[in-house]
Amino acid sequence: MYEILLAVDEEDEHAEAQVDAVVDLPGKDEIHAHVFHDFQDNPTGASIGQLASARHAKDTLEAAGIEVTLHETSGDPSEAILDTARDLDVDAICVASRKRTPTGKALFGSVTQAVILGSDRPVLVCGAEQ
């Protein structure tokens, strides 16, 4: 079983790009996707099941025949992603990148960059279609 952590944010387009990338991986019948979200500020006590992007990711992955588990934490997103990847012993991490200006295209977002630089496993970076 190939374990992959999809670290989703609140953007549906980002989650869709991540799901598309995972569904296109070879051997999708052997993939277990861990859909994960880190709540930085959660005064209402929302759970990952209430997050539209996470629900969309879960439903689409399951429709493609991929086993899915939902996970959530609260804190610093990049640290939470890396900690969760280690705790779950996933084989890879899938994150989304944000659109940047021409000058900023050479740089990833701070969370994505921190995950890439801090990870001891492969990181798949997905960009949403414009």
TrEMBL record:
Membership in a protein family: Belongs to the universal stress protein A family.
Entry-linked InterPro entries: Rossmann-like_a/b/a_fold, Universal_stress_UspA, UspA
Name this polypeptide is given: Universal stress protein
Signal peptide (UniProt feature, chain positions): none
Protein source organism: Salarchaeum japonicum
PANTHER family, A to Z: STRESS RESPONSE PROTEIN NHAX, UNIVERSAL STRESS PROTEIN UP12
Source organism, top-level taxon: Archaea
Residues annotated as domain UspA: 4-126
